[in-house]
Amino acid sequence: MRPLFTALTLLMAGTLTAQAADDAAKGRKVFAKCAICHKVGPDAGVTSAGVGLNGIVGKTIGSEPGFQYSTAMAALGAEGKVWDEAFLALFLQDPAAAVPGTRMAFAGLKRQAEVDFLLVYLRQIQPDGTGH
Predict the structure, then answer these.
(1) Which residues contact 27 (CB under 8 A, 6 or more apart)?
(2) How far apart are alpha carbons 73 and 36 in whole angstroms?
(3) What pLDDT does 46 receive?
(4) Which residues are CB-contacts of 34 (< 8 A; sequence separation ≥ 6)?
(5) Mutual orientation of helices 85-93 and 112-124 as an angle, nearest 10°?
(6) Which InterPro entries does this UniProt record tie to the protein (predicted)?
(7) CA dihedral 98, 102, 103, 108 (to 10 degrees)
(8) Which tens digits make up the pLDDT trace of 44-61?
(9) Mean of the per-residue pLDDT values for the chain?
(10) How many CB atoms lie within 10 A of CB 25?
(11) Does the predicted model carry a pTM greater than 0.70?
(12) Which pLDDT score, from 0 to 100, does residue 14 have?
């Protein structure tokens, strides 16, 4: 009985890992919509249009040095608000509703699956840009 349980556990772990990798790959494709203004990876940083998104999940909002944030975005950061997955999901769906006064011109992702895949992708990117 124990070998069967071990085999099933390993099979499930492999399936979950493969699923997560597939979801991240789908998220990377969704990120193409973001890449017009935002970058990830070792060379990501501030551009005139947006900030680099390395390590964005869990990062304090409005905290990237050298970027001119909207008053609304800067205020959230001053309050200590971070980009947790729940708030990031809201922002990705409708930036103007999540942060009234944001300068982000993107209208938002309308399909929940795209938001979910993008979050999987962004979650794996480390602050140094590795993991993408």
Answers:
(1) 117, 118, 119, 120, 121, 122
(2) 20
(3) 79
(4) 53, 106, 118
(5) 130
(6) Cyt_c-like_dom (IPR009056), Cyt_c-like_dom_sf (IPR036909), Cyt_c_1A/1B (IPR002327)
(7) 0
(8) 887 778 999 999 999 999
(9) 88
(10) 12
(11) yes
(12) 52
Residue 77 has which token pair?
């950061």
Q: Are 118 and 92 in contact (CB under 8 A)?
A: yes
Helices (H) and strands (E) in the chain, counts: 5, 0
- Give the CATH fold of the 24-124 domain: Cytochrome Bc1 Complex; Chain D, domain 2 (1.10.760)
User: Which residues does 118 contact at the CB level (< 8 Å), separation at least 6?
Assistant: 27, 30, 31, 34, 92, 109
Task: State the CB neighbour count (10 A cutoff) for residue 16.
Answer: 10
Structure confidence by residue, pLDDT tens digits, 10-19? 444 454 466 7
Measured CA to CA, the distance from residue 33 to residue 38 in angstroms comes to 9
φ, ψ for residue 60, nearest 5 deg: -65, 135
